[in-house]
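[Meeting: bench + compute handoff]

Bench side (C.D.) handed over the final construct sequence. Compute side (W.E.) agreed to return the predicted structure before the next meeting so the bench team could plan truncations. Sequence as handed over:
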Amino acid sequence: MGRHDLTNAQWAKLEPLLPAGKKSGRPPVHTKRQLIDGIRWRARAGAPWRDVPERYGPWGTVYGLLRRWQRDGTWHRIFEQLQARADAEGLITWDVSVDSTIARAHQHAAGARKEGICRSSRPVVCSPSRTTTVSDAPGWADHQVAPCGRAGPEADVAGDHGRTVR
């Protein structure tokens, strides 16, 4: 038994939660305990699967158990049952605290662009096929509000970063 392998007390709590084997015939060469210890070793060490020590079984068998139980939801069911048991025993404290000094927004989340407001420090970049003004664009009249909240012929559709096209 390795230093970080499941203890007998831990195994006694985990074993009843594991699914029973469905295959008849030859018994498995490696126990579920060995394979689970191999999965735990790999998660703890962060090593490639091929580096799982042989005492846990072939790496393909260890990986196969992990993936099979992952796909059919076995790991999730085991986790929920262990969590419910620990909660019933009062071992889990469900207090949540958020410290705003470490929960920071991304720098681009500081100020969202408001509809109809154009900031000169953040020009709108458009790329139409030709340079044009709003008065040249079909359907625009001088009294309509153009992109960036500017009205009339001086509105910038061509993306010239605030320079008026006339």
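W.E. noted at the follow-up: The mean pLDDT is 78. C.D. will use this when planning the next construct.
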